[in-house]
Amino acid sequence: MYNNLLVENQNGILIITINREDKLNALNIELLSELKKVVKVVYDDKTIKGAILTGKGPKAFAAGADIAEFASFTEKQGIELSQSGGAIFKSIEECPKPFLALNNGFTLGGGCELAMACHMRIATDNAKFGQPEVALGIIPGYGATQRLVQLVGKGKALELLMTGNMITAAEAKDLGLVNYTFASIEEAMDKCKELINKIATQGPLAIAKIIDCVNCYFDHNIDGFEEESKLFGASMNTQDFKEGTTAFIEKRKAVFTGQ
Ligand code: COA
Q1: Catalytically annotated residue among 113, 186, 226, 228
Q2: Ligand 1 centroid – CA 24 distance (Å)
Q3: What pLDDT is stored for residue 225 in this prediction?
Q4: How many angstroms separate the CA atoms of 204 and 138, rounded?
Q5: Of 199, 215, 233, which residue constitutes the final position of a domain?
Q6: What φ, ψ does residue 111 adopt, rounded to 5°?
Q7: pLDDT at 220
Q8: Residues 116 and 224 grouped into a single domain
Q9: Helices (H), the chain
Q10: Given this model, what pLDDT does residue 12 score?
């Protein structure tokens, strides 16, 4: 079904593996169109609790957009590539279910941007992060100038974006770019699953609203506080809210239905 992705449903968690190991999982256009399809599956399939995005092999999550593919692009093609890829990354950021990146090696350029569009990043100790586009004479096109600032602050973002330097997983964790680091892919995978399974015990409508409100904080066209008030009120008009509060009062565990 997919030429560039491996997709496996493990007990309601969709494991999406970028499958271009010989090219360090570089993101080509076909791969992005497949990613768009699989993100839609995460949105639509009610049995899926969340997704984990990773790269095939021990060396790379994704070493960037496919340089060979865009090397001869015109300005117009560049804008189109950035906008179409950007829309897919935004759909990951806005996914109402947890979408986690497991960074198992080089996480560079478009790969780092893809990881930053995810809700959290869990890395192996050998992971390396960076935005090396300036070395190619271009700027990032899939959101790094925005999301890197959001995650690590302006000064460090400018340093990374302007130098193109790579940082280690440990440095990325210190900066807040990465949530956790682990020695092995297996341990990192276990942590991703643990996080998604924990989130799945909470009210799903509340989780979707948290993602929406937190994204609003960075949306200059929307007042995040106003959106929060609106969705806080909307939460109260749900069965899950009634169940959650009733369960608390009755000193029992809530059973959420997502209604
Ligand atoms: N686009 C296209 N192909 C890429 C790629 C990318 N972003 N990153 C790696 N590859 C390919 C290489 O061309 C090579 O292909 P080949 O075997 O057909 O020649 C293969 O993946 C292995 O990469 P290689 O460079 O030989 O591995 P390395 O271990 O020596 O170096 C990196 C690893 C990550 C330092 C190096 O591949 C690199 O700098 N990649 C580009 C990073 C980048 O600039 N990303 C931003 C793009 S906008």
Answers
A1: 113
A2: 6
A3: 73
A4: 40
A5: 199
A6: -70, -40
A7: 81
A8: no
A9: 29-44, 67-70, 75-93, 110-117, 144-152, 154-163, 169-175, 185-199, 204-217, 224-235, 239-249
A10: 98
Is 243 in the active site? no
CB 113 less than 6 A from any atom of ligand 1: no
Please indicate, yes or no, whether residues 181 and 115 belong to a single structural domain of this protein: yes
Cα dist. 221→52, 100, 117, 226 in Å?
30, 26, 19, 12
Domain end (from 199, 220, 239): 199
Domain assignment present for residue 243? The answer is yes
Looking at the structure, do residues 226 and 132 belong to the same domain, yes or no? no
156 lines ligand 1 (CB under 6 A): no
Query: Do the domain assignments include residue 259?
Result: no
Q: Which residues pair with 10 in a beta bridge?
A: 13
Q: Name which of 82, 96, 83 is nearest 214 in CA terms.
A: 96
* Per-10-residue mean pLDDT, the chain, length 259: 97 98 98 98 98 98 95 91 94 98 98 98 98 93 94 98 97 98 98 98 97 92 79 87 92 94
**Are both 66 and 32 inside the same structural domain?**
yes
Provide the domain count of the chain: 2
* Catalytic residue chosen out of the listed positions 93, 133, 226, 250: 133
What domain range includes position 238? 204-249
Q: Is the CB of 68 under 6 A from ligand 1?
A: yes
User: Which atom, in ligand 1's list, is nearest to the CA of 136?
Assistant: 44
> Residue 96's domain is classified under what CATH number?
3.90.226.10
Q: Is 195 inside any structural domain?
A: yes
Q: How far apart are the first and last CA of the chain?
A: 33
- Residue 67 and residue 157 in one domain: yes
Q: What is the pLDDT of residue 233?
A: 84
Question: For 26-75, how does the pLDDT look when each residue is reduced to its tens digit (9 = 90+)?
Answer: 999 999 999 999 999 999 999 999 999 999 999 999 999 999 999 889 99
